[in-house]
């Protein structure tokens, strides 16, 4: 039986939005018993052009989810104009910290509003209208959130593609949602890489994207790049002459706000669609309560805006709350392993949100980079993206937080729009590795494989959610059947998360990880099927199967079992071809860590690859491989074990 190891001090809790466990329980009960009146109160904090007439519609059978029906609002007006109108125009909205330490820039709410209005007019000038899709392929530059908010302002739907994706991956995402405009930058800067070829990749992609009519290019580095005069224009030239006034478009609560691609266990990435009213309400409210945001806080989320964490907790949540949000272009180890803590000290960050993988990498370097910096501004720490284990949790708590900062281990997904299971920092006694309890309005359940709810404590099962919440995704862009099939068919009447979890004897949730063929590598969500596709495109490869294995820093590493074509040698030359093929097909962040060549893969008589066995081999757990009698050729296993890399 694990007992809580950290309880916030009296002083800490006193000023918190939720300041005791009984208070959490009371509000939780209300939110569960009368969700409609609960969310009515929360949604009322936003500025609505027209009030909704029905709080929610929840039909998991047909995947029909609606919140704040027939309400009208504009997300950019809520994130910007509202605060300026309330006298906060002079408050800092965004602090951009560049990759290179001497570079930074900040925008007040008034300044950000001006930039967004100009950009909105640039978009309109290019011919972008309400409902059109706009793709952004950028690194962490301020023009990224500016263009997202500009899309929101005119009702265009943004689709941000993480800047490490390859040209081919970018092309496929643009084509899937038929984007009309691509916004990119000349080259990118990240760590020691001072010239990431963004425009070159964008050009390669756009050569095969018939829907793209225009490419807008941000000058980040000044590197010479080719511009195609009938298609491309410079961001700064268009912005220079753009009108600084653009009225926000009244949007329906259920109008799409953005598409964000995420990996599943099969097939191509899914275009997760989020809409306007519910998403904004949920992102803002969770940001306020879970990070205990108060008006003098300086909040920093180290995620990339190319992932959902950046959308909800760098851009929309914090800005809706009139917070100061720090965005960082660089990496934790450049120019040295103290960079995060330099930035905390420089901007006097009070609320800090990062990924366990970053903590593991930093922890390995010892305490000096932390203890040599002044971190006294910090009052809360957070993690997201993958399970955090006890050693890094303790290091985070004691070395970074000096034992004074609560840690919020927040569990959620691209699909959920915002955090679902999390401690509340002023209320929840913490256990390392546990995301603790459900947020208000969230009802997690553990299910058996055959679809029964597992009651009581000290149990494990498949994690599903009963009932909708405002931030829930509404569909997979262009494939509503896949939406229903993926999330609502396994357990009719529930949203299935794809994760497994344990509920301990005191009701604390521990998320144990994916139960499907999705990997979590350095906090990046990766489908094994996608990696296998990339490997299969290498010349000389007959077949491949990819599984995860425990990795000290990345959490999970990528282990590829590859069968070469007859007559082809499984040597280092082929291995390098495979790595290059994956990089070209998806991006460098999914490069296999280990490649094992094998004349055959373990298959059942019906030809299905037995991944369970491959997983055990990759993990090094070869003494008990379980039942292998159903294999078509059990002798394959012996050589797989012998040739383990
Ligand atoms: C926000 C984000 C989602 C998957 C999810 C989990 C894993 C996320 C935690 C976690 C354990 C956590 N979106 N995950 N947070 N596992 N503890 N606090 O990461 O769509 O990219 O990934 O990430 O497996 O299903 S995501």
Structural features, described:
- The chain contains 20 helices and 31 strands.
- It is an alpha/beta fold.
- It has a domain of 125 residues: GMP Synthetase, Chain A, domain 3 (2-Layer Sandwich), CATH 3.30.300.
- An 8-stranded mixed sheet has the order 12-11-8-6-7-14-15-24, with helices on both faces. A 7-stranded mixed sheet has the order 5-4-17-16-18-19-20, with helices on both faces. A 5-stranded antiparallel sheet has the order 22-21-23-25-26.
- A hairpin with a 5-residue loop joins strand 25 and strand 26.
- Helix 4 packs antiparallel against helix 5 and helix 4 crosses helix 6.
- The two termini are 37 Å apart.
- The relative contact order is 0.10.
- The model has no long low-confidence stretch (mean pLDDT 96).
- Bound molecules: 5'-O-(acetylsulfamoyl)adenosine.
- The site of 5'-O-(acetylsulfamoyl)adenosine has 23 residues, from helix 11, strand 20, strand 25 and strand 26.
List the helices and strands and how they pair.
Layout lengths: L9 H5 L6 H13 L1 H9 L10 E6 L4 E6 L2 E2 L1 H14 L3 E6 L6 E5 H18 L6 E4 L6 H12 L2 E4 L6 H11 L3 E5 L2 E3 L2 E4 L1 H9 L7 E5 L13 E3 H6 L10 E2 L3 E7 L7 E6 L1 H14 L7 E4 L6 H13 L3 E5 L10 H9 L3 E4 L1 H8 L4 H4 L8 E5 L5 H11 L6 E4 L32 E5 L5 E2 L4 E8 L8 E2 L3 H9 L5 E10 L5 E6 L3 E4 L2 E4 H9 L4 E11 L3 E10 L7 H14 L8 E4 L13 H9 L15 H8 L3
Parallel strand pairs: 4-17, 6-7, 6-8, 7-14, 8-11, 11-12, 16-17, 16-18, 18-19, 19-20, 30-31
Antiparallel strand pairs: 1-2, 3-13, 4-5, 9-10, 14-15, 15-24, 21-22, 21-23, 23-25, 25-26, 27-28, 29-30
Helix pairs in contact: 2-3, 4-5, 4-6, 4-11, 5-6, 7-8, 10-11, 13-15, 17-18
The structure holds 5'-O-(acetylsulfamoyl)adenosine.
